[in-house]
Amino acid sequence: MKFNPGKVTTVAASVVLLATTLTGTAQAQSSDSASAKARRVDACFKGACGSATYKRTGSNSYRPVNMSVKDNKCDSHPVYIQAGVVDGTYPSGYVWLSKKHYNHLDCHGGYVSWSSYIKNWHLPIRDLIFRVCVDDWGPDTCRIAR
What per-residue confidence (pLDDT) applies to 22? Predict the structure, then answer.
């Protein structure tokens, strides 16, 4: 086999070009995921205060979803916070998740917190929505945090 300097230069240039392309792609992907910032929403009224922070990790995933709620009235009615998914498929535009996170400490207990996640939702998620509620007799009194 004969040594051909032209082929070595071409191969070396191709390797450098491929390495630069791969490095640029890796940097673009890491900066995209790093740019996803946590979002915070709050709802506060006479009966309860609640907040949630969440970070999008994919088109149908959020992690972590941190929620907290406190009771503002000493009326022996528990309060809760509940997450919902905005995916546009329901008439209201969102669906409430089944888990209500309760604070039963009345007005003397302060905030109660939970950490959760939403993973592999069946459709792309547009956003999350939260409701902060007092578990009243009859319909609950709620405020929306969006």
Answer: 31
